[in-house]
Amino acid sequence: MTTLAIDIGCTKLAAALIGHDLQLQERRELPTPASKTPDALQDALRGLVTPQQKKARQVAVASTGIIQEGVLQALNPQNLGGLLHFPLIQTLETITGLPTWAINDAQSATWAEYHALAGDIREMAFITVSTGVGGGIVSQGKLLIGTGGLAGHLGHTQADPHGPVCGCGRTGCVEAIASGRGIAAAARGKLVGCDAKAIFALAANGDEQALSLIRHSAQTIAHLIADVKTITDCQHVVIGGSVGLAEGYLAFVQQFLKQEPPAYHAKLSVAHYQHNAGLLGAALLAQGDER
């Protein structure tokens, strides 16, 4: 069965046709509407999928936020802008005329990355460090979603009780410190106003403050991995996202994780499917494939 997979992120929308061979066909990408209003997103989705929908039998969506009863919700409403309470499944079923299934994008990417791992791995975690920090957990070979879709939202575990207030309302979440938005918010002096991409570029040119900001993010993620190891006894942790995949970032995470006692160590790797993981995971889950 051919699936029309859609990935809805904070900065981009992507779609592709995916069969059981997991080959992406006719991949298309558009920027997420800057206004982030329901009408703007509906129009963008219609423009994105119209050329492909007649070739598919179902739609599978990986979206930022939490999907509850087909509606977009979020721990951190800032990540959704004006899209909180957007009727995602109903909208896509109306546009495409196809049965539609939806899941959080990090959970979806987790499932795709789990399928890419070699060997008999039953416990795995995925952490995406991007505009926010998301994640997912596979336990005993099954993706944890939870009754309310909350499972695996690792970015909202507390990293510093005296840290910045997160958009979710808690103080000192991993997301508020380690994400691209958190890195930019911590900038001082001449770096104020720089986004994470600019800060990484400055770090590559030897800027000490930029390097310190990136190292602090990586250290926070390393501490998160140690916590996740304690809770899940995961054998493998995969890192993705625009920050997580940036050159040199994983090496910093590995450096800080090695400073933890051996019991908290886990094998680390970068995301195999990188920016297509959400699309592939959504298709896999909708097709009901098992590892």
Helical residue percent? Answer: 25-40%
Strand order of the largest sheet: 3-2-1-4-7
* Beta fraction: 15-25%
* Span between termini: 18 Å
Average pLDDT score: 92
Individual helix count:
10
The structural class is: alpha/beta
Low-confidence stretches: none
Quaternary class: single chain
Q: Characterize the overall form.
A: globular
Report the count of strand segments.
12
What does the main sheet amount to?
Answer: 5 strands, mixed
How much is the radius of gyration in Å?
A: 18 Å
Give the helices and strands as they follow along the chain: EEEHEEEHEHEEEHHHHEHHEH
Folded structure, characterized:
Helix content is 35%, strand content 21%. The protein is of the alpha/beta class and 291 residues long. A 5-stranded mixed β-sheet has the order 3-2-1-4-7, sandwiched between helices. Helix 6 packs across helix 7. The chain is globular and about 50 Å long.
